[in-house]
């Protein structure tokens, strides 16, 4: 897909919408036209973000080397699976406990695909318990395709991925029981986790597993950091698929994110200065309100 | 076609949700509500998958009398006892359905709810063992983590609050303002912003078909 | 094996036993420790207290049965205040598993205690699937989302709901939750409809919402059992949360003790290893 054209179109859209933003600032939320002009600020930010992601993806496609820092937890994934293979023990993968419409779960499934490639290659048993039927369907497809890609279709067993329970703590109890009985050598927990995060991580620690966890829920990070060997924090979870695949197209997206972060930092600094010096801080604040 | 069709559907669905965010509902109707209803309907069809999976995985150990087969049998019995009476019409018996007084309600309130609360309560024990193991002053950062955790743990309970008030009457408020309202808020915001950008980038990659691993295409 | 080496390798079951004893002992021998009130809890209390009598408030039961120890005392304390002030209460839940049942039991208990009439003083809307559509839809019309209440009564037949059409008639939303639904309430309801709201959440989630209170998107915050105990003190109805604070105090002190012992053992055994090596 040629990306230069969409990038250019998006930048043009941003330039055309800036006057609308200035006019709509303070506009009432009762609209009569086709568009919700009071959300123009969100549209501009989304357009700039998309343009940045597409630009860097284009650059990656051209062959430009994009630097991505080391993420220790992801480097250890293959070693963890290797450890499981040597010990003759399974790998336990949990793609979070939320529904498939959550982006964390999709990120977890992307990582599952990469992990399944490795377990297929080494013929390591893989167990993937899921909490929702839609995640079951997606995860089975992901694992099956990975095994087919590695040419190990005969090693694939549909029951590798199974639905265990729809309730959070029933799911946790089942997985904890599995950990204590089967003693998996590696626990990889990537996705959305809530109150059960410490229950899973601490039980895995008691079972002697090497644990790599990643979540974008900030309130669960302390539990994973305390109980797991490696933890992916927030955006590192979403970067995992790109990091493990080393595909330039995916790495380009990471650079686009960083560009947006720079813009956000600049906005915070400018806004803080304006509010502190009473130089139109309210106007700056209203620029970022989404109604 | 096998690859292009799912990517096209993903792109159009994503675009529809973006359009719904921008377009005036007065003009286009409740498109957002309709699209969200669709996800519920599609989810309903996959419920059967879950039931089939759970029965198939647990039936085999029962039939083969594997070690611990009675646990699998108990699970299958629980599924039957909860599911069957709850879908039968209330008009047949007040024990059916899911209203108050039904079997489903009784089992939920007297068995399921206490078990859920028990599992949650186990966190107290696990926090203690995790804290004992993890809070070691191995480095400067680990020491800072340890000290902050100790201060916050004391601040959250009356005996600790009393201790802080004895040191200085404004100390609990200072902890609230500078630790919880200062450092904690800054870190939470940083992680939330980073995670939100990551989620947005992942969503964009999924919409454009760059990220396809979630549908089994590596 | 030396003493400190034994301490550093302490079997976790001894820790579990000590925690169990620390939790049980104060329940048998109450210590009645004095509790301070955080500014966030007081802010939430004042937000309800300053509402004119007969204002309409919404109280949500967005929590699972697993967290009732932390969240149910918040709901009960809030209802004490709301019914004392003769506020009209509309309840709803976004939790299908246990939410409607808990809302029903709690509202009936408190309604009977304050001699309130269902349909006039309070209404229980119950649960509807798809919380995003529910939260958004109630902004234009509550009846479009909930044609009838939890018990099947059409909303048009309930006197309270004849005057409440959407968020515009609701003065405050008191969210009691144990999951990320609070983010949706803020981003959908507060951001788009400017309805003032406050929340009571579990202790694990509370640090996340300080930023919303600072940004004035939320008026007040209760965190965990301590937050519930603070609210019980503010409404002057001491109950389970205040009783539980003694156990929580002792358990926290025990954990700090274990952490100190673990660190002493760590340094003692490290020193020994260094002197040997």
Question: What's this, in brief?
Answer:
The complex is a heterotrimer of chains A (291), B (218) and C (277). Chain A has helices at 4-24, 40-62, 72-87, 103-122, 133-149, 168-182, 197-206, 221-227, 235-245, 248-276, 281-287; strands at 91-94, 126-130, 161-163, 186-190, 210-215, 230-233.
Oligomer: heterotrimer
Could you list the spans of chain A in which at least 5 consecutive residues all have pLDDT below 50? none
Strand content of chain A: 5-15%
What is the 3D form of chain A? Answer: globular
Task: Give me the number of helical elements of chain A.
Answer: 11
Rg of chain A to the nearest angstrom? 22 Å
* Strand arrangement, major sheet of chain A: 3-2-1-4-5-6
Number of helices of chain B: 8
Structure description:
The complex is a heterotrimer of chains A (291), B (218) and C (277). Helices cover 60% and strands 9% of the residues of chain A. Chain A contains eleven helices and six strands. Chain A has helices at 4-24, 40-62, 72-87, 103-122, 133-149, 168-182, 197-206, 221-227, 235-245, 248-276, 281-287, and strands spanning 91-94, 126-130, 161-163, 186-190, 210-215, 230-233. The longest helix of chain A has 29 residues, at 248-276. Chain A is globular and about 65 Å long. The model of chain A has no long low-confidence stretch (mean pLDDT 86). With 218 residues, chain B is mostly helical. Chain B folds into two domains: 1-79; 130-218, no CATH class. Chain B has eight helices and no strands. In chain B, helix 3 (31-63) crosses helix 4 (69-87). The longest helix of chain B has 37 residues, at 171-207. The two termini of chain B are 17 Å apart. The relative contact order of chain B is 0.06. The mean pLDDT of chain B is 87. Chain C has 277 residues and is of the alpha/beta class. Chain C folds into two domains: 3-30 and 248-276; 39-238, Rossmann fold (3-Layer(aba) Sandwich), CATH 3.40.50.10160. Chain C is built from twelve helices and six strands. Chain C is elongated, with a radius of gyration of 23 Å. Chains A and B meet through helix 2, helix 4, helix 5, helix 6 and helix 7 of A and helix 1, helix 2, helix 3, helix 5 and helix 8 of B.
